Amino acid sequence: MDGRTFRNAMGKFATGVTVVTTKSGEDVHGMTANAFMSVSMDPQLICVSVGHNATMHNKIKDSGKFAVSILSDAQQDMSNYFAGQVKEKKDIPFEWIHEYPVISDSLVNIMCTVYDAHPAGDHTLYIGEVQDIAVKDEGEPLTFFGGKYCRLNREIEVE
C-alpha cells in the first residue's frame, strides 16, 4: 500500500489535538500532535509520537522534559501555527507552570519529565512521567477527523 492510503486510513480515527512544548536552552519550541495517549496510572505516564526529522525530536531529547496542551475548539489557530501552516512568525504568550511552557487557555496542560524513549520507524515514542496537571473546567476539545478539524456532536446519550 502507498503512504497516502495509510495516511487516509489513519485519518479515520478521530483524535483530539494537542500542542507539545519544551524549553531547550533559552528557546521555547512547540509542535502540533494528535499522536498522544495515556499509558499508565501507576506511575502516571503519557506518550507522544515525534518524527525523527521534526525539530522537536532533539529538543525533547536535550531538555528531558515536555508539556502537552490539549486544545479547545477555540484554539484552531494554535494548532495551525504549531503545525507550520502559518508562515508568519508570531510571539506566542506562553503560560509557565513549574518552568514548563504551555498554551494558555487549553483544556488541559500536562507537565512531564522524559521517562523513556522508544524509536519506532521514522518516529520516537516519548514516554512522559506526569509531574503536574492543570485542568480547565469549561470548553470543548478541538478534534481532528479525515484531515479536517471537527466539533463534538453531543446527540448520543450515554446509558
UniProtKB/TrEMBL annotation:
Domain Flavin reductase like: 10-151
Organism: Pontibacillus marinus BH030004 = DSM 16465
InterPro entries documented for this protein: Flavin_Rdtase-like_dom, NADH-dep_flavin_reductase, Split_barrel_FMN-bd
One of the GO BP terms on file: pyrimidine nucleobase catabolic process
UniProt keywords, alphabetically: Oxidoreductase
Taxonomy of the source species: Bacteria, Bacillati, Bacillota, Bacilli, Bacillales
GO molecular function, one term: FMN binding
PANTHER family membership: FLAVIN REDUCTASE, FMN REDUCTASE (NADH) RUTF
Protein name: Flavin reductase
